[in-house]
Specification:
Elements (H helix, E strand, L loop, with lengths): L2 H34 L15 E6 L3 H11 L11 E5 L3 E6 L5 H13 L4
Bound molecules: zinc ion.
The site of zinc ion has 3 residues, from α3.
Amino acid sequence: MNKYALERFKHLVKINLNFWYAFVILVILTTPVMAQNMGIIDPRKNLTPSTTITWRYSDNVSEACNAERQKIGEPAFQSPSRACSFWTKSTCLIITNRDTLPESLAHEVLHCFQGKWH
Ligand SMILES: [Zn+2]
């Protein structure tokens, strides 16, 4: 490989690496948003127009959520939870971690009003 070809090869490798860095950063930046994308919310689908929400936080959300599930006879979640909610027509319990995202809280509040909305 002559000097010109070597420089061209290095340049192409650099461009390719920059592309992959940009791709990885894009995936990292968009993944949480996509995971929390709730789409359009239709209040006509509400199970109830009002509810009393209790918001609890835990250092171990999965453990706290599974303990609540056990109380109501539901099996434990198969994957770790960032938040969970338990609702009736008039009450709702939301459990999050201490540093939850607003989108996570909104997701659970929608469960309080619409039940299994997703
Ligand atoms: Zn959900």
